[in-house]
What we know:
Helix content is 16%, strand content 25%. The chain contains two helices and seven strands. The chain starts with 7 loop residues before the first helix and ends in a 5-residue tail after the last strand.
Amino acid sequence: MSKYKLPRQYHAALLSSIVAISLGACSSDISPLHKFVQDAKTKQRPKLQPLPEIKPYETFSYTAGHLKDPFEPAVIQQSKTVKIIGKGKGPKPVEGRARELLETFPLDALRMVGTLKQKQTLWALIRTNDGTVHRIKTGNYIGQNHGKIIKITEDKIHLSEIVPDGLGDWMERPASVAMENSK
């Protein structure tokens, strides 16, 4: 800082002198600017596509609220006993037998999750698609094709299904449910 200070009224005079000198240094010929503005005004503008017509929103009134919820799991309604109709002498499901709970599920919806040995009986533990675990043994029925459990091992349930052969009779076929991998 210097020792000499200018009085306040000199500040405005000094500032206006600097502005006047700066403006004097600029050229006063602005004709190129006028020419550019005129050219820009006369230039043809590109044609724009018109905006698309916006359709008004149509409200929807849901009137099926009293019907069954489509997101609820289906309840399987099956008869309590098996009625057998067959004309041949081949294998047939046991007539008049009460159906077991696990016969309402297809085999691919059942998962073997373990075994349990109680006294001399080896039980298999089966989980259904709703997460419930059931205990079954040899002689029980599972699956929708009259599948009778014939053998249980540590890693698999072996069963024999009786299915229609397409000609009005029945045929026997082997099936199994393997232990679920816990990966």
